Amino acid sequence: MENETIDDCLARIKQEGYQPTRRVEEPVFIEENGQPVLNGRKIVFDAKLVKHEH
Question: Where are the domains of the chain?
């Protein structure tokens, strides 16, 4: 989520029953004077549902 720390995100993923499997960082650009300018990064986690054995 926006304005969420990586640790908060990982805790939320775990609480929802998922295990992160991959982290991808994507650049975020904005346009200034007709030119793309790096404005930050977006971090995306791939996750898989953890199966619990009963």
Answer: 6-49
